[in-house]
Design a protein that fits this description.
- The protein has 16 helices and 3 strands.
- It is an all-alpha fold.
- It has 2 domains: about 210 residues, Citrate Synthase, domain 1; about 100 residues, Cytochrome p450-Terp, domain 2 (Orthogonal Bundle).
- Strands 1-2-3 form a 3-stranded antiparallel β-sheet.
- α7 packs across α8 and α8 packs antiparallel against α13.
- The longest helix is centred in the middle third of the chain and has 26 residues.
- It is globular, with a radius of gyration of 21 Å.
């Protein structure tokens, strides 16, 4: 009898050239390049790498960035869809609805050729941040801000969100966030997108599948929960008691633990540095110190009682970074998606290029029954 692995834990289901994780050593690579090196490149270069499979030269990067700049504007009809959204929702719900509408307007909707999908890819990557920023501003009764073609992908998002240009450290943090969020092997949303792509459904449908999956609190939604948790703790000195009470009540503390990493997630290390830099640049360290006290309490608790550490995952210090960047919690998961879109597209393109429909089996566990004569 075949063993059933709950949640497909450690089950290898396909081969990929998009990214790799060494969970024991704490190494993440995109297309063979270490994330610690890629984080110093522009997001556009990393996005190009994921989708095209190679780093762009200067000319290729200039052309790609120019194409993204041309496609960032939403246009009147798409903006009206954002305006029509129910504003008691998360930005992810507005993003899902808007991308679905955008697909109706694309003449290449059902063309799954590489050329057509590359055109769709740049359109999606360019517009994700604009949709999220527009939703936030409309929600507050403000006019959406048009993109600034002189700014980087990350800086431009913050500019569209606020209406003013970010500081150098804020722009750097946002750019790095998009890079660190861009890809992570067969996470739930990337795998879900590949399943949709494997049926030869269109790229928009596959990306909407990713959006719906990322929204869950056990995936991308954890970032929003971390931000809400930071608001629940009145001061850094109260973090230890907060954590111990949660543990005593057997409540989950969001932003900790990972299915794959047995050591520190390399993205978390970078996010922690960014969080500290932002805190110090703003002269307001409360959120950073609160987060550090949460991390230290959990580390000591698990080492002392269980003999093994519990490390923060990517959502923990990225949530702290978002607090300092003044990103509202209801936008957090959608901002994550604005980075991850490049990874989703890379996986879908790979799936289309050598496709076989993904169709696993299930082990039936109930008795057979017979209809009465």
């Amino acid at each position: 009898m075949e063993e059933v692995k709950s949640g497909l834990e450690n089950v290898v289901v396909l081969e990929t050239g998009v990214s790799s994780i060494d969970g024991t050593e704490g190494v993440l690579r995109y297309r063979g390049f270490d994330i610690n090196d890629l984080v110093y490149l522009p997001y556009d270069a990393v996005s190009y790498l994921l989708i095209r499979g190679k780093l762009p030269d200067d000319n290729e990067l200039a052309v790609y960035s120019a194409t993204l700049n041309e496609k960032r504007e939403l246009g009147e009809y798409v903006q009206n869809v954002v305006r029509a959204c129910n504003f008691n929702i998360e930005a992810m719900d507005a993003l899902r609805t808007t991308i679905s509408y955008m697909s109706h307007c694309d003449p290449d909707l059902n063309d799954n050729s590489e050329e057509a999908n590359l055109r769709k890819a740049t359109n999606l990557i360019a517009k994700f941040p604009t949709i999220v920023a527009a939703f936030s501003r409309i929600l507050k009764g403000e006019t959406p801000v048009s993109p600034d073609p002189t700014l980087s992908h990350g800086a431009n998002f913050l500019y569209m969100l606020r209406g003013s240009k970010p500081t150098e450290i804020e722009a750097e943090a946002m750019e790095k966030d998009f890079i660190l969020s861009a890809e992570h092997e067969l996470n739930a949303s990337s795998f879900a997108s590949r399943i949709t792509a494997s049926t030869c459904s269109d790229l928009y449908s596959a990306i909407i599948t990713g959006i719906c999956t990322l929204k869950g609190p056990l995936h991308g939604g954890a970032r929003m929960e971390v931000m809400n948790m930071l608001d629940e703790i009145p001061a850094p000195e109260a973090a230890e008691a907060y954590v111990l009470e949660k543990i005593a009540n057997k409540e989950k503390i969001m932003g900790f633990g990972h299915r794959v990493y047995m050591t520190q997630d390399p993205r978390t290390i970078i996010f922690k540095v960014l969080a500290k830099q932002l805190a110090e640049s703003k002269g307001e360290t409360q959120w950073y110190r609160t987060a550090e006290n949460i991390e230290n309490t959990l580390f000591a608790e698990f080492m002392g009682k269980r003999g093994k550490p519990l490390y923060p995952n990517v959502d923990f210090y990225s949530g702290v970074v978002y607090k300092y960047l003044e990103i509202p919690p209801r936008l957090a998961t959608a901002v994550f998606a604005a980075g991850r879109i490049s990874g989703w597209i890379a996986h879908c393109m790979e799936q289309y290029s050598d496709n076989r429909v993904i169709r696993p089996r299930a082990k039936y566990v109930k008795p057979a029954k017979t209809l009465k004569a």
